[in-house]
Design goal:
The chain is of the alpha/beta class and 358 residues long. It has three domains: 168 residues, P-loop containing nucleotide triphosphate hydrolases (Rossmann fold, 3-Layer(aba) Sandwich); 51 residues, no CATH class; 36 residues. Helix content is 57%, strand content 8%. It is built from 18 helices and five strands. Helix 5 packs across helix 7 and helix 8 packs across helix 14. The relative contact order is 0.11.
């Protein structure tokens, strides 16, 4: 049995790619490749909703160093592939690159695979331009309602730079082949990279450009969301729903706040230029040119901005926040949370369906 790992990185179209693989298992199985079921996430994978791929349990067990569970999980997937008369497994989780960056972890996983008579044939790593990726991650983390200043976030919550460096070190201790490609916001390109360039299937890929499966608010909208969140978590969730429906072209370009944040990210990346040079050299096709120079950052740049369309939407949101409709929603939400904390999972799911039935 052979195995291929797609291991990341974050914000590089992983959810789209995982959805494509799940929806097109027949193409893979034609080549004797099994893309295992994603378990509790399978329904969302099929819908194209953001998910952790088909290896969340594996990734968590690896991070917890629970090696018997890792072996059991891999053995189960091997059986799943054999039932489909496949001789190859395809596993995808965008956090695995960080899991494999820890000392001795990748080597241990390879040992377990060998014990199961599974050969790791290669790793797929997709790299996004670091400033763009960090900005996207920062916005994604902030939409939870917790605002962290960008300097603090970079130092304490951005792990990709350090993780990549350690991953390359761990990879050098093995004979596993790494296929590394630069990210492009192009659905057809991403599938071709995976299906043809990496797996070598020589399939004719035709895909219409997809909407983002993980859209984000502007930085200015996120600042406002965090302020609302401090006073009312439920109202903040509704604010997100109001603002996410606005087309990007109808929003302010957010140049002041975005420029302020990007300049801080740029200056952080300068400290890792040695790593980015290694990343550039490891690209499998066209060589990237990630290299950063210090830039000046002034506090005057930290200005939020909204378009007329955004302001009108915020006005509608304020009216909604005063309405009976929102008060009813808030009662329902609190009821569901209470049920979730005090009821077994299977009963909670049933009551949730009944409560929302209209």
């Amino acid at each position: 049995m052979k195995l291929y790992f797609h291991i990341g990185t974050e914000k590089t179209g992983s959810s789209f790619l995982q959805s494509y693989l799940a929806r097109n298992r027949t193409i893979l199985e034609k080549h004797a490749i099994c893309y295992p079921h994603a378990g509790v996430h399978e329904a969302n994978v099929q819908k194209g909703i953001i998910t952790p791929g088909n290896a969340e349990d594996l990734q968590r067990s690896i991070d917890a160093l629970e090696w018997p569970k890792v072996k059991e999980w891999l053995a189960q997937k091997k059986k799943e592939a054999q039932k489909k008369q496949c001789d190859t497994l395809l596993i995808s989780n965008e956090i695995l690159v960080l899991s494999f960056s820890k000392e001795g972890v990748l080597a241990k996983v390879i040992d377990i695979l060998e014990a199961l008579e599974i050969s790791c044939e290669g790793l797929l790593l997709i790299i996004r331009e670091p400033v763009s990726q960090a900005l996207s991650l920062y916005k994604h983390r902030t939409k939870s309602g917790t605002f962290t200043p960008i300097q603090e976030w970079l130092e304490n919550q951005y792990f990709i730079a350090g993780g990549l460096k350690d991953f390359y070190t761990e990879l050098s201790k093995t004979n596993i082949k790494l296929s590394q490609f630069e990210y492009k916001k192009d659905s057809e390109y991403l599938v071709n990279v995976c299906i043809n360039d990496w797996l070598g299937l020589n399939e004719d890929i035709k895909i219409e450009q997809q909407k983002s499966v993980n859209p984000s608010l502007s930085l200015s909208e996120l600042v406002l969301l965090c302020e609302i969140f401090q006073n009312d978590e439920i109202l903040a969730k509704k604010f997100y729903q109001f603002m996410i429906r606005i087309d990007v072209k109808d929003k302010s370009d957010d140049k002041y706040l975005k420029g302020y944040v990007k300049n801080h990210i740029n200056n952080y990346m300068v400290k890792h230029n040695e790593l980015w040079n290694i990343v550039n050299q490891k690209m499998s096709t066209t060589k990237s040119n990630f290299n950063y120079k210090p830039c000046k950052v002034t506090s005057e740049e930290k200005i939020t901005s909204f378009s007329t369309h955004q302001i009108k939407t915020i006005s509608k949101f304020i009216e909604y926040s005063k309405s009976k409709s929102f008060r009813k929603h808030k009662i329902k939400y609190k009821t569901i949370v209470f049920i979730g904390k005090n009821t077994p999972k299977f009963i909670y799911k049933l009551r949730k369906k009944l409560l929302y039935r209209t």
